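agent: user wants the structure for Alpha/beta hydrolase from Pseudoalteromonas fuliginea. delegating to structure tool.
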Amino acid sequence: MFKEKCFIIFTLLFSSFSYGSEIFDSLPDTINSSDKYVFYSHGFIVEGIDPKPVHERWGQYNFPAIKKELGDSSYHLIATHRPAKTHPFKYAEQLSKQVTKLLKNGVLASNITLVGFSRGGFITAIASSNLKNMDINFVILAACTSGLAKRAEIAIYGHLLSVYETSDSVGSCDDVVARNLGTVSSYKEVSISTGKEHGAFFIPRKEWIVPVKAWLKRKKPQ
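agent: tool returned. relaying tokens verbatim.
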């Protein structure tokens, strides 16, 4: 009886850790069609070899800490450290191919999310425009009123969450969404006010991490 109870406990523990909760540098070789996958694309300053670069105005960008806090037991997190001088459109094409691979392996579009901050948000929007899938989820962090605002040919598809900082020069996604009516399946926007400008997203502050993770784990349409 004791051995049987131990086996049951071990099985339950193993089951809880076998689903999600892993952080990858790139798309894993083994894809489970029932799992959820989240891609995080970092800001421009991290491109290169330093995962914790320092900006003269906004301080340190702590990429490892963001990955740790953004990770969750309910999904696999893929957070690639991009090399210096990465071309956003070429990288977005690679990202789109990774998402397409998930879809071809049976992963539901509603179980796939792309998250991007600043340059990473621009890349995320380009990938959305490439994929043209109304069921994939996208999170854009402080990117809509920079380069994305000027590129009317980039259309966001699917379910969108926007988060921006009120003290930042990069603001709301409302205008970008307005020009893409008919392609955005659902839209939610959250403003935060830390006073840290663009640097609000340089570290995993609860002000943006909490609403993003809550949105990632919301009940999604199938």
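agent: one observation worth passing along. Strands lie at 23-24, 37-41, 54-55, 59-60, 76-78, 112-117, 137-141, 158-165, 184-192.
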